[in-house]
Amino acid sequence: MKKLGIIDIGSNSVRMVVLHIKPDGSFRLIDEVKETLRLGERNGDSRNLQPEKMRTAIETLRFFKDLGEALEVDELVATATEAVRRAPNREDFLKMVQEEIGIRISVLSGMQESYYDYFGAINTMVLSDCLIMDIGGASTELILVRNREFRQSVSLPFGAITMAEMFRLKDPLTEETRQKMRKFLYSEFANLTWLESAGPLVGIGGSFRNLSKIDRKLKNYPLDITHNYSMTDMDVNEIFRLVSGKSAKDRTDIKGLSADRADIFPGALAEIEALLDFTGIKSIQVSGAGLREGIGYEHMLGGREPVRDVLENSLDNLVKNFGVNERHASNVWNLSRTLYHQLQEELGIERNQERVLKTAALLHDCGINVSYYDHHKHSFYTILNSRINGLSHKELVMAAMVAAMHRKDEMKLTAPFKSLLDRKEYNTVRQLGIMVRIAESLDRRQNGNVIGIESQIAAKTVTLRIQAWISPGLEINDAKSIAGTFARTFGKQLQIQESEEVDSVE
Amino acid sequence: MKKLGIIDIGSNSVRMVVLHIKPDGSFRLIDEVKETLRLGERNGDSRNLQPEKMRTAIETLRFFKDLGEALEVDELVATATEAVRRAPNREDFLKMVQEEIGIRISVLSGMQESYYDYFGAINTMVLSDCLIMDIGGASTELILVRNREFRQSVSLPFGAITMAEMFRLKDPLTEETRQKMRKFLYSEFANLTWLESAGPLVGIGGSFRNLSKIDRKLKNYPLDITHNYSMTDMDVNEIFRLVSGKSAKDRTDIKGLSADRADIFPGALAEIEALLDFTGIKSIQVSGAGLREGIGYEHMLGGREPVRDVLENSLDNLVKNFGVNERHASNVWNLSRTLYHQLQEELGIERNQERVLKTAALLHDCGINVSYYDHHKHSFYTILNSRINGLSHKELVMAAMVAAMHRKDEMKLTAPFKSLLDRKEYNTVRQLGIMVRIAESLDRRQNGNVIGIESQIAAKTVTLRIQAWISPGLEINDAKSIAGTFARTFGKQLQIQESEEVDSVE
Predict the structure, then answer these.
(1) Helix ranges (DSSP H) in A323-467
(2) CATH number of the CATH domain containing B132
(3) Considering only CB atoms, which chain B residues are within 8 Å of A416?
(4) Each residue of A127-138: pLDDT tens digit?
(5) What is the interface pTM, i.e. ipTM, of the complex?
(6) Which residue of B17, B33, B369, B446 is the best one to mutate when testing the A interface, meaning the one whose CB has the most A CBs within 10 A?
(7) CATH classification of the domain holding B409
């Protein structure tokens, strides 16, 4: 057991996350604090850290340190980025922090910052080729990813605060200002010979989080989840238009925009819009994970080799965090996968649904942590809110619904999820729900008694022959309650029998 | 650690619950199975158990036994009630069960059955004087409770199935049938000299659970919680009218009524209506706990002394089940109680809200089990669904909302909870939410650093002087985020200072 604190001294805000890493390799976030200090705000032309900002930063770090001690943090990693990196007086600041509160800050190079951004995103999203953009207060990182590998990166020395200082963005934006920003950004991007359209733009940082939140509010999106949220270039254009027309004060009316970001937000939007235009990228995926998560994964994985399978890694972690019965969960997953593979084609079930099925099967009982009563409903809620990495939002909702169907008849497709799933996807959910429900019955003893299933599909029937360690009468009896739902869904009678295979041992 | 299985062979259904009892005394339900066998159904005039029913019962018990073994149950308690109790051939049945599956069934006397009903209800509801009614398939228990004590009881040899057999209730009921049932029931009740109106009628059993479910559906009630649900005699009359007008087949249209109870439900309703009329009792509280829970509590408490404080017992159990940081939870409860007691009168906060405040304070972090992100929202969901005993439904919703406010500004009062809380109650929620939020900040280190609070209330300010083990700068700094909400709610500025008390140690 280890508690790791990660402090990130950014140009806009200073944050600390505390991770609890268990001996079994699982981890969870146990605390998070943030202060918006605007350390990267300049006083005139000086790139120095301003004395009063330094004082506030030290007070904040003292608070973080105290909190870390109170939480019994074993290791504290503190990093700083552009505001400190560029400051001629940074040694004074680092020395003060070291002497007054005993924290040694690592000032990350632009490349290191880019790498951790990449490492946070690559371990929490299913990405192959993409361009990552992290807009900070005083810098912007761009990272080219090919085949999940880190290829190229740059740390541009301007961010949301810098843009606001350069172009004065407090009033409604004139067309002239927008053109100026665009010209500036294009000339910066033009220097990057390697910049190209490579899959989606993956957006990191508070500006992207705000952008996605505004978009969700505008669209009445049914989930309040930032990570892996998808948007298009058109969505960005629309929000930029909306924001540009307003002064910083009036922007606070925009639902989803943080008050403490209203003044600097248009600069970030200008950067995103220009990059999309410049590269021709049309689609954005927002990442809730970046620098801090990248540092966290480096510690947890013990190196810089990304996880092999993002979803699997995330599910392993959640299975341990939720303390579900791992043996039963894995039995239900194996049995439902067997059923799916044997029945998928002939019963006309959608292909390639293993990720949804696996998530639902492994986590079907996680709602027991809320209460045993109606725990299928609580599994729905828990899955929906548990920040599983490696699923699209659609798949997440589908998995939550499949899990909700593991004990009872169908869950209806109602608002607000109606807007996310169409009838066909809902039908897939119902079909997968039956697979999990049969698997749940077949592992009714929770001990892996059922070893094999052999399916025979005839005109009017589906027969499952069950091979089990000891006679599976109990399991078959329990599975009978599914027959009605099965017949309604697939138009065939379900028959479950003990396999007639006889042991050859005399 | 111990796993206890409790089998209850009733006249309508046979059930098993499995409880996991931990060394720290906490327990949770981990499995529940039910088969509706109608063991109490008669064949002509014979009171004997019918051979085919006995066979099915034995198969069901074999399933339960196997499941118990698979779940590694350490102790299996099996009880039977009226259907077995009255049967002249019961010894044959008991012997068959013993010989074929090795389960020894205790046949409870009517008094024992009544006692366990009482013990299930008294440990899970705040009751002083009341009349308990448990309607089974073939018997009805009535128990008079005075001052939380078991006073008198009777087990009447008829229940929902018996009534259906006696009065043929499959068709829509004629006025004549209703009169006949009423006459029969009144004559039975008239023999019970001790029967009187003593607080509410506490209803136990499937018929009451169905009754409450129908009532919730009719009223669009915002919670799907049976235990401690309140109804009036008028509600019962209305539902009886609704049910009486329909045949058994048509009754399945009634939302909330189980299909496997549609034929016998009017008999149970007739019993409830007659008892309310006879005693003049106007209000009903439905108990989700009865015989099985009574047996469970006897085992868990190691005797027949009821818990001293139902809410406290339930909260202790949930704090352990959820694995929340007990020290921090108890610090937040102590600090918020101190604040409440010091501020309640002068700031015009509602009196007697300790139960709501205690629940919210002790469980404010339980949502972390779902995810740290937005855990205040998950605490809301978890509290609402965690079957806390000893709170009214209104108090439960209030506590969940107060917990949801421990980190962020107010949670709005929206549908469906608008129908349960009025503006005044919502205002109380907001005020208590501030108490918990200040307490949370004052225990920001989670280690009980703050020892004392001294409040001073002036015309325009409320000043809190904080005494702490080590200087509480961190805590006070954290609590400052509440100042705006505090001022808006109470119309006074909140000031928090370190107490000037100086240690007298030189």
Answers:
(1) 326-343, 354-363, 375-385, 393-404, 423-442
(2) 3.30.420.150
(3) none
(4) 999 999 999 999
(5) 0.91
(6) B369
(7) 1.10.3210.10
